[in-house]
TrEMBL record:
A family per Pfam: Guanylate_kin
Keyword Nucleotide-binding: yes
Subcellular locations according to the entry: Cytoplasm
Keywords assigned by UniProt, alphabetized: ATP-binding, Cytoplasm, Kinase, Nucleotide-binding, Transferase
Domain Guanylate kinase-like: from-to ranges: 4-185
KW DNA-binding (keyword) present: no
Taxonomic lineage: Bacteria, Pseudomonadati, Bacteroidota, Flavobacteriia, Flavobacteriales
Annotated ATP binding sites: 11-18
GO cellular component: cytosol
Subcellular location, principal: cytoplasm
UniProt-listed Enzyme Commission number(s): 2.7.4.8
A GO MF term: GMP kinase activity
Protein name: Guanylate kinase
Amino acid sequence: MEGGKLIIFSAPSGSGKTTIVRYLLEQPELNLAFSVSATSRPRRGKEKHGEHYYFMSVSEFKKHIKNDDFLEWEEVYRDNFYGTLKSEVERLWAEGKNVIFDIDVVGGLRIKKKFPKETLAVFVKPPSVDELKIRLKKRSTESEDKINMRIAKASVELATAPQFDKIIKNYDLDTALKEAHELVREFVGTPRLEKGEEKVSKK
Ligand code: 5GP
């Protein structure tokens, strides 16, 4: 496998990494494309197959593991498998894109290990675990049990931050977006846009 750059954003669930990744995808000069992961977790809300995830059954997912189809995979929560298909990165590299990932810390570090030079691994740090709890409850897409599962995992994930190339503190969204943009721009080696050209949108 060879091609463009790999940009990883990892963080505990609710840290705001998805917002940052979406924002970066809107910046044309970065030439980014989103790596759609495979997952066995149920679809949430308006999520679409092939756009947010490739949704599949646990047995289908296990078949892909057996065939060595994954660059990395993880049972992030019990019976909820997530993984990056090799074919997904190959497809986007073939289109001449830099690939951006929104994945968990273990998967992110695995990709970094496989492609050390091609990868920029960024950890997004939330203000506190309490703030995470508030954000996840506000999102209200999951049951109390699932939220607690995500919170329990957050402390373990926070401890892995020093293993990443860069840490972005998401205490203030605008600041985090600008910092992320600058980091990625430097890494992919594209010139800075003139003042006023930068697109800022918060979703
Ligand atoms: P969610 O269920 O909220 O979409 O995602 C749960 C966690 O799984 C998040 O931390 C997300 O970043 C992570 N995740 C998503 N795709 C992948 C993947 O392909 N590999 C790994 N290791 N984690 C992933």
